[in-house]
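If you are new to this repository, start here. Below is one unmodified record pulled from the training split, so you can see the exact layout before writing a loader.
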Amino acid sequence: MRPEFPNVDADRVAKKLRAIKPAGSSVSFRRSHPCIVCKRAIGPLGRLLGLGAPTCADEACFVVRPGDVSRCLPTPYGPAVDHSLLSLFARPIHVPSGTLLLFEPLVARSVSLARAYERLIHWQQAYDILEWHRNPDRYQQGIVTLVPPKKLDDVLVLRSAQDLLPRDPTKELDIETAALLRRVVREGEKALAVPF
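And here is the target side for that same chain:
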């Protein structure tokens, strides 16, 4: 059975990423505590991420759960991002209940991440189409020869501060297969109907 790929609209995905709810709950503090993100004294209102883990109410100090980000970027092969990949540019914040991520860098790069996610899905579809087309019997048995890109870092160079750069997921393949995959990404399944 062929996997079902999501129909990706990069603008909607970027909006979903920016709409993730911050972790923790709003609280009012009776006395001042240092914010675990910026280290400044928290005023009367802040957020509590867990026992001994307060943050101020400044948006720059909002943190999110890595799982909430992963759920915005699903693929048939699992989430397009994981905690280690996200922590390359979104500072991890360690609290007693686990590790959270600073939200501001995710918001700043939401459009780039959404476009990379859209690109990843197109590549995954191209690999799937070519695999199915080359040998449908083996495909039905779950025997594949082309392993598709599974995470964003397979199609994107993730860097801590600079622009995110596209990466070619076909660089390890033979020239003919790589060219055919690029053609399938551009034209879809109809690219295989025309002799290469």
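Two things worth knowing about this chain: DSSP finds seven helices and ten strands in the chain. Strands lie at 25-28, 45-48, 54-56, 63-64, 74-75, 78-79, 92-95, 98-102, 156-157, 165-166.
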